[in-house]
Structure formats: C-alpha cells, structure tokens
Amino acid sequence: xxxxxxxxxxxxxxxxxxxxxxxxxxxxxxxxxxxxxxxxxxxxxxxxxxxxxxxxxxxxxxxxxxxxxxxxxxxxxxxxxxxxxxxxxxxxxxxxxxxxxxxxxxxxxxxxxxxxxxxxxxxxxxxxxxxxxxxxxxxxxx
Length: 142
Prior knowledge:
Distance between the termini: 30 Å
CATH topology: GMP Synthetase, Chain A, domain 3
Radius of gyration: 16 Å
CATH class: Alpha Beta
Number of domains: 1
C-alpha cells in the first residue's frame, strides 16, 4: 500500500496514490511467482510504494511516485563478493527501470516523476546494498 502524508494532499496526489497501489499489487503477484521459480536463493522479496514530496534541493520540487524492491537472501553469503557483483549490475538495473518498471508504472496510471530503490540484504543481516534510479528530469542537476 502506498503511504503519504495527507497534509496538502491534492486530488491528483490521491489519484497517484491509488495508481501506485494498483502497480504495487501487480508487482507483489509477480514477486510471488519469481520466488516460487527461484527456490533457495531468496528467503523473501517485497515491494512497497509511496508518494514522496521533495523541496527541490536534490530532486525536482513536488511529488514523486517511489517504489522499493527488497530482496532478502536465503543464506549468509560472502557479502563483499555479493556487493561487487551487484555493483556490476547497476547498468542492468537502470535498463530495467527505463524499459520495464517505469513503463509499467505509467501503464497503471502513475504519472510524474518516478523513482525505484533496489535493496538486497544478506541472509544473516550482515550486509545491505541499495541502488536508486529515477525517471528523466527527477534530479535537480539534470
């Protein structure tokens, strides 16, 4: 379920939240299938969405629809090796955002600036890796 502070909420923000909820529900179904097809790799995978409001310092001022995919490995792994492997996947994650995630969000009615966080957590909670991608024009310096 998308979460947002209702202070200053406009109807368009409410529409974005509802569209984001629809998108997140579809991704949750996909993650369940993904986990079933890849037994033993991940203990759990989640997706959450929220509408975030930014003041224009780093991100363009206004509301941004944001989703976070979190993958919990089933077992403790050699975390420095995993981090190195994940660091090598950032171009792929950017491509997934551009070619899959952002179009799917828009197809479900999510408009405006979009952001995605990818989080991977070691099976024994000894390591965490995060990566973020944003739709074109979302960052102030762009």
